[in-house]
Amino acid sequence: MPDFASLSAVIGAGLTPTLAFLYQRLEQLLDRGGAPEPDPAVPAELTGTLALPLQADATRLAQHERDLASLRDGLNVYYRGDAPVAATDDALLRTLGRARSLLEDIYSQRLTFAGEQRPASGPFVRQDTERVQGEQIGMDADEIEGNASVEQKTHTVERGSTNIGMRARRIGGLPPV
Fold first, then answer.
1. Residue 56 CB contacts under 8 Å (≥ 6 apart), including other chains
2. Phi, psi (rounded to 5 degrees) for 32
């Protein structure tokens, strides 16, 4: 079960903006075909820093499109205000948890909200590779602000090949003075 149910006690008044943020990402992906989203309205309840623009992985978006549409349909009644948004609504929390899980997979970014006991929002890479021939890089960027992580499981790296978890000029924090 997605871990969103744990938020029922800590999110309180933040549940409505969290719902709006997740619902709008579903709409963006489905209605605009996953076009990059340079400036989404990020609620104050989101902890950490998202790497912008939000960029969908086209393959993952295609794999999950039907599920995303079903989740959007299920959340629509809450988003429109036709049903109360309550932290005690287990069905709502499960649906939000599933939506968040798929959005995190599609955007390769963690979406963490205030009060949760999980890493802050930010980009992540998960790779499970049987054999690396040539070069494999988990993350490569000139600058990433905020939380970023790479999880790699590699069974064999062929002779002369390279497996890099993260290569970046400045990951986060304040720039050098």
1. 29, 34, 36, 106, 107
2. -115, 15
**pLDDT for position 151:** 64
pLDDT by residue (tens digit) across 135-170?
776 666 666 665 666 666 777 877 887 776 666 655
pLDDT class of 1 with cuts at 50, 70, 90: very low
Work out the angle at residue 21's Cα, subtended by the Cα atoms of residues 19 and 24, and round it to the nearest 5 degrees.
105
User: Would you say 63 and 4 are in contact if contact means Cβ atoms under 8 Å apart?
Assistant: no
CA–CA distance, 115 with 103 (Å, rounded to integer) = 20
What pTM was computed for the model? 0.73
> What pLDDT, on the 0 to 100 scale, is given for residue 174?
46
How many other C-beta atoms are found inside a 10 Å radius of the C-beta of residue 157? 14
CA 95 from centroid of its chain's CA atoms: 15
Distances (CA, A) of 27 to 30, 52, 103, 155, 166: 5, 18, 11, 38, 31
The residues with which 127 forms a beta bridge, in sequence order, are 152
